[in-house]
Amino acid sequence: MTSVRDEGVVRPTVEDEVAAAGSELIGGPVGRRALLGAHWWTPVRVVALCALGVFALGMVQKLPCYEGGWFFGQGAQYVHACYSDIPHLYTGRGFEAGLTPYVDRITQYSGGMEFLEYPVLTGLFMQVAAWLTPDFAETMQEQQAYWLVNAGMLMACTAVLVVCVARTHRKRPWDGLLVALAPALALTATINWDLLAVALTAAAMLMWSRSRPLAFGLLLGLATAAKLYPVLLLGPLLVLCWRAARWRAFGSALVGTAVSWLVVNLPVMLFAAEGWATFYSFSQDRPVDYGSIWLIISQQTGQPLEKANAYGILLMLLGCAAIALLALYAPRRPRFAQLAFLVVALFILTNKVYSPQYVLWLIPLAALARPRWRDVLIWQACEVLYFLGIWMYLAYTTGGNNQGLPQDGYHVAIAVHLIGVLYLCGMVVRDVMLPEHDPVRRDGSDDPAGGVLDGAPDAFTAHETLSGDSEPSLDAEDRTVRWGNPSG
User: Fold this and answer.
1) Which residues cross the membrane (predicted)?
2) Which portions of the chain are predicted below pLDDT 50?
3) How many Cβ atoms from other residues are within 10 Å of residue 170's Cβ?
4) Measured between alpha carbons, how far is 433 from 343 in angstroms, rounded to an integer?
5) Where in the sequence is the domain holding 180, given as residue range(s)?
6) What is the C-alpha to C-alpha distance for residues 158 and 48, in angstroms, rounded to an integer?
7) Residue 223, CB-side half-sphere exposure with 13 Å CA sphere
8) Model confidence, pTM
9) For the segment 197-237, what is each residue's pLDDT rounded down to a tens digit?
10) In-domain check, residue 247
11) Judgement on whether residues 120 and 35 belong to the same structural domain of the protein
């Protein structure tokens, strides 16, 4: 029998053909009389353990670099696709020398960078890991230890991430497996410190799903203090709250975001302004770099493309306007996770750099926006190809023996990544315009992760305004008749 605790939980092996086929490896789809949720192996715990196992496999994948690839020449870390910023920046940003981030100049260690070029909360994360790193006689051993300490801290971030995703949709905890088993999570988790911001963003979305907009804002502000991209989520939230007239909730989220961001940043802004500003000036001034559409254009035309910033900002603004129109014109108010995925994906597509670990930004949003194994796996395959492509390209350009992927091949790898992201964006847009195709809404739900937006009637839609339709907005009872029970 099915336990009471499992009542109503969506099982992917029942509704998803790819999940059902994949489950044959462990005995096939769950049966009607399966006993689930009545013992220790709850969905959230299973998801968390799977994520930790995948993270550990990613650490094993870095073993060739840990044993010497990071230290003895550049070629090995690219050939084995095990590069990580972490050990290099331990010495290259003055942590080994005991320098204080944002306060002490690091020019003699960094090769030109005057101050640490990371947001404040990420800098604190790096500094805490440096304090926990034991002293060794050899620098190489300290770099290895620093990577291990960071890996342990990032593993904790991974656990927080998957638990938050699994609990965001109360009836869809198994969607967390889309994050836990993502190949790109294993490959990129310990390249840099992005998982800190990703975990905080997932925690913020969990708070929003529980109708706690102030807590959402506080966590989103912390996430933005660790990486810039989380602040983009306020844009979709503004449009959705506009359509539903939930201004108080949006105001609480906005205030919470501003307060927590200021609490983290203000002390450094006041006492180390130049160091604090380095992240923002570096982001603005850096040239076109790896992984972007702008790199393809620049290398194919032989031009430096000095106006890439302006082009990227213009495309970003146009894309945000299109997402806003989509949200206001859609026949049914989109789910928050759908628009959050679209706006972050837009930022990635228009940015002038795409580091391999940036895929981590999208993985939890994709699991919430489009929880279908086929589509997520297609996208993940594209990202894995890009992950291999960039390291083979760097092996080709730095190895001196022309072994690896030449420039044109690398451009193909970038194109594959861009097409993969656009494909998943297309599926999400289709779900928005044709809500009957949305896997989350098939049971009559509205937006299970939408918090105060879940089941709320529309106060305004562009569709009615442009068409001159005078039909009043749906109240809760009408919505139930037309779409099914809003609470799912």
Assistant:
1) 115-133, 145-166, 178-208, 214-241, 253-273, 310-329, 336-354, 377-396, 408-429
2) 1-5, 27, 33, 35, 466, 469-488
3) 17
4) 16
5) 42-483
6) 8
7) 27
8) 0.91
9) 999 999 999 999 999 999 999 999 999 999 999 999 999 99
10) yes
11) no
